[in-house]
């Protein structure tokens, strides 16, 4: 099993994937442009170029600059592998759409780690009771593009997963790395999404206002509260562990590709450099 798994990219997220693979007793083949990392990972099969990797892997995790996600995915998809792309999976709609068209049946997925959070697991809100959704995605670190593409992506796929379609109405820049996004879910439910890099007070939460009261999805502490009472709380293995396990066992939700296509199309309406 180990020799059939490939991890492309050993940056911050790539190393997190590696740790989970090792917890699952999987020793992957590694690939990174930084060849000096070969010394750090001398006990692993290591390649500088993904095109030099021999054989036909069964599962490939790709966590590199999203500019190069599509070409790496195409290479391994053509070899019959299941490919998981870290988000964002591409920098434009057409590149991801071309992959989906060329490899029918979506034998690949886009990372949606927050779907595995106990904040949303087994949770399906009644849209008829929801009055508004207030979202904070305020992180201490930073990513590749900007806070909307790198961080708000989580909340946009969750909106699609929990409710269905949405539309972004306005985007305000509140600071160097702070944005406020307003829009509508299902053409009737207003949402506000505050997203930031380099933020001193980390906050990753939703507050859903309903006719039955308030629901809080606390992604930082992996719990869900309904009217102040904790109804779901993480115990045991973490969400990335579960995501990686699903990928290895062929259970990952490939509808993540359709959600990613929707998000890319919506973001392109506003432009990449928001």
UniProtKB/TrEMBL annotation:
Transmembrane segments: none annotated. InterPro entries: Gfo/Idh/MocA-like_OxRdtase_N (IPR000683), Gfo/Idh/MocA_Oxidoreductases (IPR051450), NAD(P)-bd_dom_sf (IPR036291). One of its GO terms (molecular function) is nucleotide binding. Residues 5-101 form the Gfo/Idh/MocA-like oxidoreductase N-terminal domain. Pfam families: GFO_IDH_MocA. This is Gfo/Idh/MocA family oxidoreductase. It comes from Aquifex aeolicus.
């Amino acid at each position: 099993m180990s020799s059939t798994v490939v991890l492309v990219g050993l940056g911050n997220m790539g190393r997190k994937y590696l740790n989970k693979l090792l917890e699952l007793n999987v020793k992957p083949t590694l690939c990174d442009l930084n060849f000096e990392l070969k010394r750090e990972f001398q006990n692993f099969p290591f390649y500088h170029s993904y095109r030099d990797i021999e054989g036909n892997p069964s599962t490939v995790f790709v966590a590199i600059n999203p500019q190069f996600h599509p070409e790496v995915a195409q290479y391994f998809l053509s070899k019959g592998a299941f490919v998981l792309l870290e988000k964002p999976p591409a920098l434009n709609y057409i590149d991801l759409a071309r992959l989906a068209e060329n490899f029918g049946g979506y034998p690949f997925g886009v990372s949606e780690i927050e779907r595995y959070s106990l904040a949303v697991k087994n949770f399906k809100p009644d849209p008829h009771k929801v009055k508004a959704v207030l979202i904070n995605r305020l992180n201490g670190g930073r990513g590749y593009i900007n806070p909307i593409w790198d961080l708000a992506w989580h909340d946009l796929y969750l909106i699609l997963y929990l409710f269905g379609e949405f539309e972004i109405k306005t985007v305000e820049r509140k600071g160097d790395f702070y944005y406020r996004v307003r829009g509508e879910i299902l053409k009737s439910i207003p949402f506000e999404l505050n997203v930031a890099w380099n933020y001193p007070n980390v906050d990753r939460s939703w507050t859903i206002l309903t006719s039955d009261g308030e629901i809080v999805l606390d992604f930082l502490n992996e719990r869900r509260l309904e009217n102040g009472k904790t109804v779901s709380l993480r115990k045991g293995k973490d969400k990335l562990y579960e995501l990686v396990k699903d990928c290895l066992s062929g259970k990952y939700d490939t509808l993540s590709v359709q959600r990613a296509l929707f998000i890319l199309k919506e973001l392109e309406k506003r432009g990449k450099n928001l």
